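mind reviewing this stuff:

——
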Amino acid sequence: MPELIKAKEPFKFCTRLHLSELTGIRATTLGQLLVFIKELPGSCIYHHTHRFLQQHQYLSPEPPNDFAYWVTDILGEDELGERLASIDTMQYSTIRDLRQKLALTIENYLNDNPLAKLRFARSGEEFHFIKSVSFILPTSYSVCNLQEFVEVLKKITIDSIYFHIFEARLRLEKPTNDFAFWIENSLGDKRLANNISSFDPYTSTLEDLRRKIIQTVEGRIID
């Protein structure tokens, strides 16, 4: 086994507590949905595009976002629902860009299908906007090399992995996840960082993602 490089800065694992908070705002038409998507806080966009991943972390992901579900199942606009469901969240490193894509998709559809503006959700089936509230907490784990990193990764909670993979990247507007960022900038291992950064977290469960990262790092340690 080659000698392990000591990081310039230790990696400090954090974890998260999550609450879903009702905003009291609801939409009954596509026009209203569009307005609120443009105006409401990014925490609402985050909730409605990542809710499934937060609540069902052990199941196979890549579900349609909440907007796609409501547009299809409640308003019956199947074509728009497919367009919204096909938006690749992985392409967007900021909530701002994801919001713009969602809004533009609905806007273009309404321009091409003006009668869609006349569809109303039935009473009790309105789209209720919810925002995601996260509390970030430090853990006792701090690591200085890849061996320590992989050992902690094996036992850290799934909430910690979620934070370092999803929230740090998308909500904090980082170009990559925390793990890859630390490996490249503190350990100087760009190849390993690129490998980890290339994993699509939206097509794996978090436990599968944990296993992939562990296997990749362990392979690099003995490389």
